[in-house]
């Protein structure tokens, strides 16, 4: 089972370089049609469920605008009696 993660982008730290979008193997990110406070089109999460927690987006972001939080796996209780 693949790891799951929640990707969060701080839109006002993003300068719209698109590195994260082009390096995501699962097309989780895309560029917004909106403009941030700095006047840039910013990256946004468009397909969160496809994220495999590879963290390529966070590693490549020159503005450290991306946070990746690993989700805890669901615990399955086993009744042995």
Percent in helix: 10-25%
Compute the average pLDDT: 92
* Largest sheet strand order: 1-4
Order of helices and strands: EHEEHE
CATH topology, anyone? Answer: Alpha-Beta Plaits
Which value, in Å, is the CA radius of gyration?
15 Å
Report the oligomer: single chain
Shape: elongated
Count of distinct structural domains: 1
**What is the number of helices?**
2
What proportion of the residues form beta strands (DSSP E)?
A: 25-35%
Structural notes for this entry:
The structure is a single chain. By secondary structure, the protein is an alpha+beta fold. It has a single domain (5-70), classed as Alpha-Beta Plaits (2-Layer Sandwich). It is 12% helix and 27% strand. It is built from two helices and four strands; from the N terminus they run βαββαβ. It has helices at 19-23, 56-60, and strands at residues 5-9, 29-35, 41-45, 66-70. The chain has a two-stranded antiparallel ribbon with strand order 1-4. The protein has a two-stranded antiparallel sheet with strand order 2-3. A hairpin with a 5-residue loop joins strand 2 (29-35) and strand 3 (41-45). The mean pLDDT is 92.
């Amino acid at each position: 089972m693949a790891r799951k993660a929640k990707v969060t982008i701080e839109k006002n730290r993003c300068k719209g370089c698109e590195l994260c979008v082009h390096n995501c193997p699962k097309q989780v990110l895309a560029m917004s049609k909106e403009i941030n406070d700095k006047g840039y089109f910013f990256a946004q999460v468009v397909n969160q469920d496809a994220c495999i927690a590879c963290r390529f987006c966070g590693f490549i972001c020159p503005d450290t605008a991306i946070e990746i939080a690993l989700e805890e796996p669901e615990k399955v209780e086993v009744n042995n009696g």
